[in-house]
Amino acid sequence: MNGDPRNIVMPFNQSLALQPGLPYPLGATWTDKGINFALTAPHARMIELCLFDASGETELQRLTLPACEDGVWHGLLVHTIYDCAMLIYGYRVHGAYAPAQGHRFNPAKVLLDPYAREIVGHYRGQDAFRDNDPTDTAAIALKAKVCASSTMPYDWGDDAPPLVARDKTILYELHVQGFTRLHPALPEALQGTYAGLAQPAVLDHLTSLGITTVNLLPVHHRADEARLQNAGRANYWGYSSIGFFAPEPRYWSGRAGTTAVSEFRDMVRALHGRGIEVVLDVVYNHTGETDASGPMLSFRGIDNALYYHLQPGNLDQYENWTGCGNALNYHEPRVLQLVMDSLRYWVQDMHVDGFRFDLAPVLARDPQGFSRQAAFFAALVQDPVLAAVKLIAEPWDIGPGGYQLGNFPGRWQEWNDRYRDTIRAFWLHRSVTLGDFAHCLAGSSDIFRRAGRLPTASVNFITAHDGFTLADLVSYHDRHNDDNGEDNRDGHGENFSINCGVEGPTNDADIMALRGKLKRAMLATLFLSQGTPMLLAGDELGNSQAGNNNAYCQDNTIGWLQWSEQDAAHHAFVARIISLRTNHPALRHAYWHTGELSTITDEGVVLTWLAASGHSMHAHEWQARECLGVHLKAGPQDQTCLLLFNAGTAAHDFALPGGAWQVVLDSSYANGQTPVQGIAESVSVPAHSVIVAVAGTSP
Questions:
Q1: CA distance readout (Å), 446 to 8, 347, 439, 528, 609
Q2: DSSP per residue over 585-617, as a string?
Q3: Among 5, 286, 570, 643, which is most buried by a count of CB atoms within 10 Å?
C-alpha cells in the first residue's frame, strides 16, 4: 500500500448483486421495481453501497454499484432480494488517496449520500473521520434513510404560496429553535421545534406585528465543527451544512407519527395559512467538512476534486473564500446540478417561498472570479420552478473581489450593510451627512439603480443574527464575546454602537429612556425607508444577548429569545410603524424617485426634501448631520405623508408645508402614540426622534 491509510474490507456477500439501474435521478429513488441508487463520482474506481440495520450502526451488506455513465455510478436494489421498506445506507468509494493530486478516496469511511432526504446519526467530532485515518467509520458515520412512507404524497390541502409583492414584504429573521425555545405559551415538548413555530400563539405574534415573510436561519442538516464540540459548544446558527435536502432533526419534536420532514411541512402550511411566506437561509457556499484537517463525511470522500475549489498548484489545500475551510466549486456542472436539484426540492416538495444565500459571491465564482454571467445565475433565471421565488444574497465573501453589494443581477435582492452602518452612524453618532442618510431613505440608488433594478432590491436592516441585537446596540460600546471561547476576538469590531453612559444593564431612568428613543428612531427609519425592511426576531421584544455580537455557538439563553422580558410598549411601537408602512403606499414606494435627491414625480409620488425651516434643501445643507424632512405627495389612493427626523440632542422646530396635518407617530413615545392633535404651521420634534404626519385627519 506504500503508506496508503485506507483500510479496505472486501464485501460481505457478492451473491446479492445490484442490477444496473439508471444514472438519473441522482440519490436514492423509490420505484416499483426497487430502489435506484445514483452517485456522481467521476474520479472513483469503484463504489460500494453499504446497507445497515435499523439502528444505523451495524453494516449488513455491501453491494457494488455495477454501472458508471458520464461519471455517475448507479445500481438498482430489487425489492425481492432485500426488505426495502425502511432502508439505511451509505457508500464506500474506492480510488486513489493522493491529496497532492486532489484525491482523498478512503473506503474505510462510510459516506453520506449528498441527496439524502433524511439523515441518520450526528457527527460528534471524532478523529476517526479524518481522511488519512485507517479507522472504519461504519458504526458512527452519517447515513441516509429511505422509507416506503416517504413515497406517499403529503396532504398539502389548499396550501398555496402567499406570493407577497416586494413592496409589501416585511422580512423577519429568526432561528427556529431559539425563537420558541423559551416561549411561555408552548408545551415544553414543542419549544424549539418546527412544530412550535406552527403554534397559534407564535403565529399570532407574527401577525400582530404585520410580518409577511419569515427568514429562517439554516435548517439543512448540519455537522458542527470538531473544535466547537470539543469545547462543549455547537454551531447554533447552523452555518455548517452537510445535507442539502434534509431538514435538521434537532428542530423536530420527535412526536409519534411525525418525521422532521412532515413536521417542517406542517410548519410551512401553518405559516402559509396566515399569509406568511417562508424563506430559507441556505449555505451552499461550503460544507461542514471544513479544511484539509476536517472530517470526511460525504463530498470529500465521494470526489474531492469535483466538489471543492482546490488551490491551483497546491491541490492538497482548499480555497477558503468562505472563512469556513472550503468552498464548493460551481464551475463544475455536477455541483451546480446538486444545488439546483436541492432548491427545486425545497420549493416543490417543501413549499418554501424563497432563499437567502449565505456568502453568495462564492456561488458565482468562475476561474476569473465573481461574474454576473456565472452559470449559477444563468441556471436560476431559466428555471421555471424557481421563477417566482424570492432570491436574497448576502453579497460578500472573504475571497478576492468578494464584496459585491449592488452587483447581483435582475430579480435578486441583497443585504445592504451600507444601509445598516449609515443608519447606525446617523442616529447613534451623528457622524454621517444628511446626504448619506437621504440616499439610504430613498433606496440606495447609488448602489442599486442599474440594469432595471428597483429600490426593493435593497434589503434594509439595522440588526441581523450576525451582530448586536437592537437592545445591545444601544447598551454596549464593545462586544462581549468571551463565552465564545475565542478571547473576545471574534465578531465585528466596528459596530457603530453606543452604551449611552453605562456598559450593559442599568436602572438609570435617563439612560433607559435614551436607549428606548434611539431604538425607536432607528426602527422608524427602517420602516420608512424605500427598499425591503428586515427585522431581527426579538428586536420588538427588547431582546438582549448580553453584549455578544457573534452568538453563533450559543445554544443557550444567550442565543434564545427571552420572551419573559418582552417590552409590551415597544412591541406596540413596532406594530404601529409596520402598520403605517403597510397602509400608506407612499411609505413603501416601489419605484425610483427621478433624479439624485430630487423633487420630481415618479409613479405618482412627489418627493421633496425639506430643511427644518420648511424650504427645499439647498446643496450646502446636505452636509449637515441632524435634521431632515421628507414630504411625500401621494396619488389619489393615499394620503400625503410628512416624515421629520431629528438626530440631535435637543428638540427642534420644523416648519410644515401648507395645510392641516395629523401626527400619527411620534417615536419619542414608548408606543409611538402621541397626544398631539392636528397641527398646521410647525411642530417641535423631540431629540433622537421621528415624527410621521399625514395630511388632513387621522386615518
A1: 60, 33, 7, 19, 17
A2: GGGG--SPPSSTT---EETTEEEEEE-TTSSBP
A3: 286
> What is the average per-residue pLDDT within 558-577?
94
The answer to whether residues 375 and 418 touch, using CB atoms and an 8 Å cutoff, is: no
The residue among 690, 676, 675 whose CA lies nearest residue 630 is: 690
Residue 614 pLDDT class (50, 70, 90 cuts): very high
Any bridge partners for residue 532, and if so which? 459
CB 436, CB 418: distance < 8 Å: no
Q: Which helix (H) or strand (E) holds 347?
A: helix 333-348
Q: Is the pTM of this model over 0.85?
A: yes
Q: What angle do CA 440, 442, 443 make, to 5 degrees?
A: 70
Mind listing the pLDDT tens digit for each residue in 399-440? Answer: 999 999 999 998 999 999 999 999 999 999 999 999 999 999
Q: Is the pLDDT of residue 659 over 90?
A: no
Task: Assign a CATH topology to domain 27-151.
Answer: Immunoglobulin-like (2.60.40)
Alpha-carbon distance values, 244 to 192, 205, 285 (Å) = 21, 30, 11
Question: If we measure between CA atoms, which residue out of 609, 615, 656 comes closest to residue 628?
Answer: 609
Cell numbers 422580558: residue: 565
Mean pLDDT of 166-190: 97
Domain ranges of the chain: 27-151, 586-695
| 440 vs 437: CA distance, rounded Å | 5
Instruction: Determine whether 503 is an active site residue.
Output: no
C-alpha cell at 246: 434534509
38-56 as b/e: b if 16+ CB within 10 A: bbbbebbeebbbbbbeeeb
Identical fold between 27-151 and 586-695: yes
Given the residues 167, 358, 567, 638, the one annotated as active site: 358
Give the SS3 label for residue 165.
Answer: coil
pLDDT at 86: 77
**b/e for 590-599, b at 16 or more Cβ within 10 A?**
bebbeeebeb
**Could you write out the three-class secondary structure of 477-532?**
CCCCCHHHCCCCCCCCCCCCCCCCCCCCCCCCHHHHHHHHHHHHHHHHHHHHCCCE
101 vs 597: which has the higher pLDDT: 101
Assess whether pLDDT exceeds 80 at residue 80: no
If pLDDT is split at 50, 70 and 90, which confidence band does 32 have? confident
358 flagged as catalytic: yes
Would you say 442 and 593 are in contact if contact means Cβ atoms under 8 Å apart?
A: yes
pLDDT in tens, 125-170: 999 999 999 999 999 999 999 976 556 789 999 999 999 999 999 9
CB 219 within 8 A of CB 248: yes
Cell 416499483: give the residue: 32
DSSP code for 337: H
Residue at grid coordinates 479524518: 130
pLDDT at residue 149 in the model:
57
Which residue among 133, 248, 394, 540 is the active-site one?
Answer: 394
Q: Where are the alpha helices (DSSP H) in 181-323?
A: 194-197, 200-209, 226-230, 260-273, 299-307
Fold of 586-695: Immunoglobulin-like (2.60.40)
H or E segment at 104? Answer: strand 103-104
The average pLDDT across 630-641 equals 84
Count the helix, strand and coil residues of the chain and give each as a percent rounded to the nearest 5: 25, 25, 50
Between 303-312, 316-325, 632-641, the lowest mean confidence (pLDDT) is in 632-641
